[in-house]
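Feature request, filed as a ticket because there's no other form

It would be nice if the structure record came with a short human-readable summary line next to the tokens. Right now we just get the raw output. Example of a typical job, pasted below so the devs can see what we mean:
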Amino acid sequence: MRRFGWLVLLGGVVGYAAALGLLWWQQGALIFPQRVNSLTIAPVAARDDFQRINLTATDGLTLQVLQTPRRVPVNPTLVVAFGGNAHDVGGMALWLRQVFGSNTVVVAAPYRGYPSAVGIEQAGKPSQAAILADAVTLTGWAQSTF
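Raw output as currently delivered:
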């Protein structure tokens, strides 16, 4: 009976370790799923007042960024956002502009490897390091521009 108890305990420890190993191995796919929710109607530049801008990331990749509005208000509030996992960056940027008001400039980019309804499809592969580097590039550009 005592041996059975040790076997059950050992089985539980091995099972728990296997589950943790599986989660660690799949963490990238769990955080950055390859399925993207998209808008049913893509934003239109003439109607929705946005523009696309290309920036060069620290690793040389071209970041495709969306800015709304095209004409920047005086002393704007700057909102920097990333979309792709659960939101389309086009719809998200336009929504953020509505939420924060007319004196706001929203600059947004999809995660690397994610598409967008406004025709932006970021090259590369999503990762924590890539998002951090892209955030530093995007924020630095936005602060010096606005």
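Something like this underneath would help us a lot:
The mean pLDDT is 81.
The two ends are 73 Å apart (CA to CA).
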